[in-house]
């Protein structure tokens, strides 16, 4: 069925556009080394896996807002990781953070119908823009500086006056930048615009300690977190959001009516995962080691200045000659490596490729050997 004239026609999903490149990578003996999507490949904690079958929570409907155990674990994790106190009453569960990113604009539009703009980073994970579109809102990309950080001075006052929210993602995907979250929160309060801070890579902060927008106070801000990368549990779809009591309360109530619920066994296991800081620290070390290895190998093979990011699990590399698709294909042909062209993350990403450090060590070494690394 096609869209009616003037109706919404979903664009191609970005990673589906890599099928031809992937076929060239698969032609290598040993197959493709997948570094395009940020999909965890390492095993999760055995304690978490055991917990999935031991909760007894599969029989009934789980609470949409999150079980008390999950919310308390999330609040305790925020306190340990960031030194910020948040009452568990101001924490709520979501079905993975992508779902929250994609759905929040429509709910905020119902809350504030005289506003229709969603501000988001001009270099970003595409779901911020798509969430605005799906919610019938107007997505407006905020300019970014050469490092990928938000340039708040570039926001048109007319857009600020109509803004439902401002999204920030730090450490950022794809560029790995660290934004000044205190400044972003202050801008939001000065303009009466809720700030939604996607901090799912916070435990992979390489330059300094992990940061949260909540450190500047809860007024007008909501932090969004996930256990997908820190705990290798993307398949469980366990995330949470915390912050401004009124905003969290509103979103949690409207989401009840939408039937958005993290499965009970997943909530039980997610709480156990959040308790385990040692596992997350070990996993972060794996990502950092892989980032450094890939930066060294790709930089040497193509005589490029490649450096690990300040945070996150991606290398952001300027393509030779500015042709990202050509470099994407070259990596597939030379090394059987599949990466993503920067245009997937907005016009500001043109001329770059993103390399996700998510393959196992042996697969990364396979790619390194193909590129002649010792």
Question: What are its keywords?
Answer:
single chain; 374 residues; alpha/beta; Aspartate Aminotransferase, domain 2; 2 domains; seven-stranded mixed β-sheet; 12 strands; 38% helix; 14% strand
Describe this entry's structure for a reader.
The chain has 374 residues and is an alpha/beta fold. The protein has two domains: 123 residues, Aspartate Aminotransferase, domain 1; 230 residues, Type I PLP-dependent aspartate aminotransferase-like (Major domain) (Aspartate Aminotransferase, domain 2, 3-Layer(aba) Sandwich), CATH 3.40.640.10. It is built from twelve helices and twelve strands. The strands form three sheets. It has a seven-stranded mixed sheet, with helices on both faces. Helix 2 packs antiparallel against helix 9 and helix 4 packs parallel to helix 5. It is globular.
What's the name of the CATH homologous superfamily of the largest domain?
Type I PLP-dependent aspartate aminotransferase-like (Major domain)
Q: Helix proportion of residues, in percent?
A: 25-40%
- If you average the pLDDT, what whole number results? 95
From the coordinates shown, what is the CATH architecture of the largest domain? 3-Layer(aba) Sandwich
The tally of structural domains comes to: 2
Q: How much is the radius of gyration in Å?
A: 21 Å
Rounded to the nearest angstrom, the distance between the terminal CA atoms is 53 Å
Weakly predicted, low-confidence segments: none
Order of helices and strands: HEHHEHEHEHEHEEEHHHEHEEEH
- Helix tally equals 12
The class by helix and strand makeup works out as alpha/beta
Q: How would you sum up the global shape?
A: globular
Highest CATH level, the class of the largest domain: Alpha Beta
- CATH topology name of the largest domain: Aspartate Aminotransferase, domain 2
